[in-house]
């Protein structure tokens, strides 16, 4: 019991230290480039964790090239989506070229290298695109995404622990339940409802100006996508036979452990904006 309480305390203290730093990087205009640096650093560290798990599986990968392009995509995304996507295409070509030049032929190594480049390089770079999007509502978009996924995670955990019975994916993550998943979506919907109210009733709130049904649609989509991202990372860890992807954040594990719910939702929200443009 004391061990569990100690672990919970460590997790709480880590979160309390991280939260104000992350909020400052998101909202303080003079720290825009520092936010880009944060995303780039998380991409590189996440790629290192990802390829370490691949090596643990006995897959002979060469992580330095994907790590370089993961860094590059986050940096050039600050200028435009075109540069970010061009960096992805160039990265795919270079990673593939590096693989075919090796004497060992391995479809697994090629596939893992390319998936890592997309999963932990290209996906996170969309946070930079979100942050620079629109007329002063970019930070609001990033904050909305962070809050929705945090609420979804919390709702899924507490509902699943309280009344969860039906296993969601017993092979990949035995503790997750359908009841918890529904609770996570419900918590996210409550969060976006509050965001809608603030957006339309409080001056100075920089959010997209969507109607309530649009907020609900986006919130539900993000919650479900975040849960898929969580399961994907759990699948990778289970296959690599590791408990955590790393130990960077005390009590929280590694970058992928902390950011698994965000990897797929960043692109999701960015491209949803092309369909539901902001009305501010």
Provide a descriptive summary of the structure in words.
With 280 residues, the chain is mainly alpha-helical. The protein contains 10 helices and 2 strands, in the order ααααααββαααα. A two-stranded antiparallel ribbon has the order 1-2. A hairpin with a 3-residue loop joins strand 1 and strand 2.
Mean pLDDT: 89
Number of strands: 2
Termini Cα gap: 50 Å
What does the largest sheet look like? 2 strands, antiparallel
- Percent in strands: under 5%
The secondary structure category is mainly alpha
Low-confidence runs: 1-8
Shape: globular
The order of strands across the largest sheet is: 1-2
Number of helices: 10
Rg over CA atoms, rounded to whole Å, is 19 Å
Order of helices and strands: HHHHHHEEHHHH
Q: State the share of residues found in helices, binned by percent.
A: over 70%
Précis, in short:
This protein has 280 residues and is mostly helical.
Would you spell out the secondary-structure blueprint of this structure?
Layout (H helix, E strand, L loop, with lengths): L1 H26 L4 H25 L7 H13 L4 H20 L6 H25 L6 H26 L3 E3 L3 E5 H24 L10 H29 L14 H9 L1 H11 L5
Antiparallel strand pairs: 1-2
Provide keyphrases for this structure.
10 helices, disordered N terminus, mainly alpha, two-stranded antiparallel ribbon
């Amino acid at each position: 019991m004391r061990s569990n309480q100690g672990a919970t305390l460590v997790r709480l203290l880590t979160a309390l230290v991280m939260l104000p730093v992350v909020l400052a990087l998101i909202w303080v205009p003079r720290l825009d480039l520092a936010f880009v640096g944060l995303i780039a650093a998380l991409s590189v560290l996440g790629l290192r964790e990802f390829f370490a798990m691949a090596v643990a599986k006995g897959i002979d990968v060469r992580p330095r090239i994907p790590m370089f392009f993961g860094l590059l995509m986050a940096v050039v995304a600050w200028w435009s989506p075109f540069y970010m996507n061009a960096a992805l295409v160039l990265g795919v070509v270079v990673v593939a070229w590096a693989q075919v030049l090796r004497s060992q032929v391995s479809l697994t190594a090629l596939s893992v290298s390319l998936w890592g480049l997309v999963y932990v390089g290209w996906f996170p770079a969309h946070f930079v695109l979100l942050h620079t999007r629109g007329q002063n509502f970019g930070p609001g978009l990033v904050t909305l995404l962070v809050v929705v996924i945090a609420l979804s995670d919390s709702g899924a955990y507490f509902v699943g622990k309280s009344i969860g019975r039906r296993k969601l994916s017993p092979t990949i993550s035995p503790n997750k339940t359908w009841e918890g998943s529904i609770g996570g979506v419900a918590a996210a919907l409550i969060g976006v409802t509050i965001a809608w109210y603030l957006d339309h009733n409080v001056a100075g709130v920089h959010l997209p100006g969507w109607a309530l049904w649009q907020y609900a649609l986006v919130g539900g989509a993000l919650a479900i996508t975040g849960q898929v991202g969580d399961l994907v990372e759990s699948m990778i860890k289970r296959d690599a036979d590791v408990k955590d992807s790393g130990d960077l954040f005390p009590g929280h594990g590694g970058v992928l452990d902390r950011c698994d719910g965000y990897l797929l939702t960043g692109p999701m929200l960015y491209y949803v904006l092309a369909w539901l443009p902001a009305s501010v």
